[in-house]
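Can you make up a polypeptide sequence alongside its tokenized fold?
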Amino acid sequence: MAKQAGAPKEHTMQLAEILSDLVSLRVCDPAAALALVSTRSSSSQDPTNNTKASGTDSRNEKEEEVEEDDVDLKRAKDLLKLHYEVKEAHKRGGLRRGWKRRDGG
């Protein structure tokens, strides 16, 4: 029972973190946003890591496999793609035209 009492607060914190991340993504370009949700192994970020190109290629393949298998990561990427498409449509005025058609105007 004690664990259940702390669950809503934990979910609230996770939601707050997600909303904060979404606000941050709004102001950065799509490439930077995608980089934020791309997975990287800690060894690829280590500046002292001196691997050969073939080792890097195999690590990139493994990272791609992990990304394909991770449902949450795929959802995050889909959300980024959708956000970018809506943002671009808004810039072109496409959203206004859609609302006018919907409202019959």
